[in-house]
Write a structure and sequence with these properties.
heterodimer; A: mainly alpha; B: alpha/beta; Immunoglobulin-like; Rossmann fold; six-stranded parallel beta sheet; five-stranded antiparallel beta sheet
């Protein structure tokens, strides 16, 4: 490790330990690391948005390429700033409504395709008398019961209540598996960080 | 005399030498012919070039296909690649706009220089090591955008039907039809959590997640935020909302401000408590964790879109001793909330919560319509399995989407 690497890695190791100190309790070291990382992220995003949005989507198209239709969304963006004026603050609501409306409109067919069509196609499997067929049958049954759990306008009583209970058990089984998988991923991240600290201290003090 | 000399030369050769001379002559003749053949047979061009506007797009794209050159696939002197040439006029200069390896029969010209409603002419050129051969010109072809994506017709029809069902349900609710909504434990606990925070004199933290303002989960979170804000205005509690996106901050401010005005307490609305933190995931999580430990909120709400930071937030809130209510439509994150929070709204329960809280006929009708749609999906699954088992593929093919 060169001296420069040692210095930079030393900073990284120090900040890692600062964040880990949160496990004990809130303290000045954690506060320092937290505010540093939040500040750096904020500054980074401010510059990134300036370049990718203001420069690429306002300055260049309008003033260099003469694409005047870009003025309309720019005006919408400017309307957001009217929030600082009590008289004109209502204008910002138009821009907000447009933004949410367009976003939702674009999302609607995507949701229909991803969450209805593809799920439906994956669930529909021909019945057959084999282990694979039994597996498919169980899958279809659990999917149906889970759908029953998400019926909100019907009381969950009697047979329907029983089926919806199977649905929530199915969900919990899925959540358990997902939990285990993600925890393993997090442990791997922790191990990676500990290896980094170990290697740094070996480089600093020798083995 | 000459004849006899020739005869004598030939005659003087032994049998082995005669055979060697004949073999050499045969080889010479063969290579001579072969050489002549390769020189005489030029590279064949690709044929049947066809170009058309790429369907179902916003324009500025032309799709081409052709039949391979007969020399494609030959080891020696065969085609190495095909170049696609474009011109704006039949007699104009053709420029190379793309290249594909041998064996390829199609190419999509998506050059940014293409302009909708302009005519273009194309040629395809087979390229070998030392030779090339150009196809006939095809054109004119005009790129254009389409308003309707025919490959997504099934999605369009299904969306229309689903919307129609919801509109019918809403109109039923508006006419005063009785609609039942099953209780949601997490939502029933909202008032309890706010009351507890008020009694303890501590603030309430509402985290609207890492979703953009237009995402369904975030929109549902805004509705619940409105309800929470009404209660905090009534009880005069402090409400803190750290936002991940500037737009989420703006909408949150609007929602909370409206709620305070509805209750008649715009005077206690504090815009500075609804603030933008940062647009980076883990710095955001670190900052919110810090808020939890320093402001000590008595109740934490995590409602919206959450990712890997969910457990960090929920665990810190748990350690801080706050009552916690979470809800997200991210299936991977729900287990973490289940583990560390007091109440969790699972998936669609988050969307239902807003209707449950507001009792607004439009939202109640929407919820009822969604249930009908879910019933329709269950029926479609049943029909799909039946037809698939009987060997009819047409039913499930109805849901094919050509993107």
């Amino acid at each position: 490790m060169t001296t420069v690497e040692l210095l930079w890695n030393g900073l990284a190791a120090f900040l890692t330990l600062c964040i880990f100190s949160f496990l004990y309790k809130d303290n000045p070291f954690y506060k320092f690391a937290e505010q540093l990382v939040a500040g750096v992220a904020l500054g980074y995003w401010t510059m990134l948005l300036y370049h990718t949005t203001f420069t690429d989507k306002v300055l260049i198209p309008i003033f260099q390429q003469g694409k005047l239709h870009y003025i309309l969304p720019t005006i919408m963006g400017i309307m957001m700033w009217t929030r600082f004026s009590k008289k004109l603050a209502y204008l910002s609501r138009i821009a907000i409504a447009f933004y949410i409306g367009v976003g939702t409109g674009v999302a609607l067919p995507l949701y229909m395709y991803n969450y209805v069509f593809r799920q439906l196609q994956a669930t529909v499997v021909p019945l057959q008398f084999s282990w694979l067929g039994l597996n498919s049958l169980l899958m279809v049954s659990f999917v149906t019961c889970t759908l029953f759990y998400f019926f909100f306008s019907k009381e969950h009583k009697g047979t329907f209540g029983g089926l919806s209970k199977v649905g929530i058990y199915t969900l919990m089984a899925g959540f358990g598996a997902s939990f285990g998988l993600t925890v393993m991923g997090r442990v791997a991240l922790l191990v990676q960080r500990i290896i980094f600290l170990r290697e740094y201290f070996i480089a600093l003090f020798g083995s | 005399m000459g004849h006899s000399q020739k005869e004598s030369v030939w005659g003087s050769c032994n049998l082995f030498s005669r055979k060697a001379i004949l073999f050499s002559l045969t080889l010479l003749v063969f290579f001579n012919f072969h050489l002549k053949d390769t020189q005489a047979h030029p590279l064949s061009p690709p044929t049947e070039l066809f170009a058309q506007d790429t369907p179902n797009d916003h324009g500025k794209s032309i799709s081409l296909n052709w039949n391979l050159s007969p020399d494609d696939g030959k080891v020696e002197g065969g085609v190495l690649s095909y170049e696609i040439l474009r011109s704006t006029g039949l007699q104009g200069v053709f420029e190379v706009v793309g290249s594909v390896p041998a064996g390829t029969k199609e190419f999509t010209d998506q050059d940014t220089a293409l302009v909708n409603s302009h005519n273009y002419y194309y040629k395809s050129r087979a390229v070998a090591v030392t030779d090339s051969a150009v196809s006939e010109i095809f054109g004119p072809v005009t790129p254009s955008g389409q308003w309707f994506h025919t490959g997504k017709t099934s999605v369009f029809v299904a969306t229309l039907l689903f919307c129609l069902i919801i509109i019918v349900a809403i109109s039923y609710a508006k006419r005063g039809g009785k609609l039942y909504i099953r209780p949601l434990a997490g939502i029933n606990a909202v008032d309890e959590a706010i009351g507890r925070a008020t009694e303890m004199g501590q603030p309430i933290l509402f985290v609207p997640g890492l979703g953009e303002a237009y995402e369904v989960a975030t929109i549902a979170a805004f509705t619940i935020l409105g309800r929470v804000a009404r209660k905090t205005a009534e009880y005069q509690s402090r409400l803190i909302v750290p936002a991940y996106y500037p737009m989420v901050m703006v909408v949150s401010q609007e929602v909370v401000k409206s709620a305070y005005m509805d209750v008649g307490r715009p005077d206690i609305y504090n815009e500075k408590d609804i603030f933008f933190v940062t647009q980076e995931q883990f710095p955001y999580a670190a900052a919110v964790n810090g808020i939890m430990l320093r402001e000590r909120p008595a109740a934490n709400f995590y409602l919206g879109k959450f990712y890997a930071e969910s457990l960090m937030l929920a665990e810190t809130g748990f350690l801080a001793g706050s009552i916690q209510i979470a809800g997200t439509d991210e299936p991977i994150q729900i287990p973490f909330f289940v583990a560390a929070c007091d109440y969790v709204l699972i998936g669609e329960e988050l969307y239902a919560a807003s209707a449950y809280l507001s009792r607004d006929p439009v939202q109640l009708g929407t919820l009822k319509g969604q249930d009908w749609n879910k019933l329709a999906i269950v029926i479609l699954v049943g029909l799909g399995i039946l037809t698939a088992t009987l060997g009819f593929a047409w039913f499930i093919n109805l849901f094919n989407v050509n993107i």
